[in-house]
Amino acid sequence: MPAVVIVGAQWGDEGKGKATDLLGSRVDYVVKFNGGNNAGHTVVIGDEKYALHLLPSGILSPGCTPIIGNGVVIDLDVLFEEIDALEARGIDTSKLRVSANAHLIADYNRTLDKVTERFLGSRKIGTTGRGIGPTYADKMNRLGVRVQDLFDEKILRAKVEGALELKNQMLTKVYNRRAVSVDEIVDQLLVHAERLRPMVADTALVLHEALDRDETVLLEAGQATLLDVDHGTYPFVTSSSATTGGACTGSGIPPTRITRVIGIVKAYATRVGEGPFPTELFDEDGERLRTNGGEFGTTTGRPRRCGWYDAPVARYAARINGVTDFVLTKLDVLTGWDRIPVCVAYDVDGERVDEMPMTQTGFHHAKPIYEFFDGWSEDISGARSMDDLPPAAQAYVRAIEKMSGARISAVGVGPDREETVVLHDLL
């Protein structure tokens, strides 16, 4: 049975949660393999709406085992707040498993995230201020605190001491903040140790054994390809690997066991935070997309920047991830436009460029070259097959499929899990 990866193919907020949930009842394990509580999934089931941040979307599917992989950075306060909120609504979270190798966000990471952004001023990245980047930096600098360290206080204390030797110098001498005590951080982290202990596992081993039993594993990315630390619009990116490659390193599953890669694209495009965005709209169309699409961050509530569909970005994501299938979301949001532009190439300093420019400078100067497609006015939320869609909507889907580098296998026509046109089986 397969290991299937779901990745965002734009700048995030494409609707990965819905796609994961759509498959959740048919898979045995759902794995979050990167990021932290700096991004969220919104899942709508009937009249119920769930906002998930750290927990995999599979937490909402009975019979599915949700796993937080080693590539995730975990804020334990947020994790248990989220668990408690779901339990209060009758959701069983007892199957959750957490990698012993996942790194923990300490209070000093959150502080450094916020003060560094303020210090950068006009050069800020646009982080959520939740300590994600500094925690990944600690991981790479080998100063990180891992889940398993909670169960050996001597090791935990030694690691916190090592991290604070440098960080207290920065906090006091560079940022004019108070020093943080080792005891303060150790006590904050140990508060959760006993509650977390039963959830902790060698999750890579768990997943290997599941695949050996012919069970299906779904790996879901946080953020998206254009926010990947290696392949995104650097430096305006997240601090983790949000691509198919990150699914392997963040879960312990080797690439030879991945059989399908599902890329999620919105029928238009959005972005949160700073950085280049060629099709961004600053007019009534942009505001209309934002309002109709409910384009406000699940985690932060920040209004998202909105623009038209960018086919070179989709092709780039298809190449980087090895996308086998696209899920196109939020087609219903485009209802009511007389004509719909799609970016098919860029003008970079007077030269037509058909693929994403190689350099940051090139992409920063890229201006969209559009093709225009007829719009539709009919309500499409009840569509369950391509034939149910208006001819103009069908033509739009087929056109961007041809431009985007992989087949479109499902189309979202509304927020509910049932409001989907399935063209090809995703498993």
Structure description:
- The protein is α/β, with parallel strands linked by helices and 427 residues long.
- It folds into three domains: 3-97 and 200-241 and 256-262, Adenylosuccinate Synthetase, subunit A, domain 1 (Adenylosuccinate Synthetase, Chain A, domain 1, 3-Layer(aba) Sandwich); 103-194, Adenylosuccinate Synthetase, subunit A, domain 2, CATH 1.10.300; 264-422, Adenylosuccinate Synthetase, subunit A, domain 3 (Adenylosuccinate Synthetase, Chain A, domain 3, Alpha-Beta Complex).
- The protein is 32% helix and 21% strand.
- It contains 13 helices and 20 strands.
- The protein has helices at residues 16-24, 76-88, 107-120, 132-140, 153-174, 182-190, 193-196, 203-212, 244-249, 284-293, 311-321, 360-365, 391-404; strands at residues 3-8, 29-32, 41-45, 48-52, 65-68, 73-74, 97-99, 103-104, 200-201, 217-220, 258-266, 269-271, 305-307, 309-310, 325-329, 339-348, 351-353, 367-374, 407-412, 420-422.
- The protein has a ten-stranded mixed sheet with strand order 9-7-5-2-10-1-11-15-19-20, with helices on both faces. Strands 14, 16, 17 and 18 form a four-stranded mixed sheet that branches.
- Helix 3 (107-120) packs across helix 4 (132-140).
- The longest helix is centred in the middle third of the chain and has 22 residues, at 153-174.
- The model has no long low-confidence stretch (mean pLDDT 92).
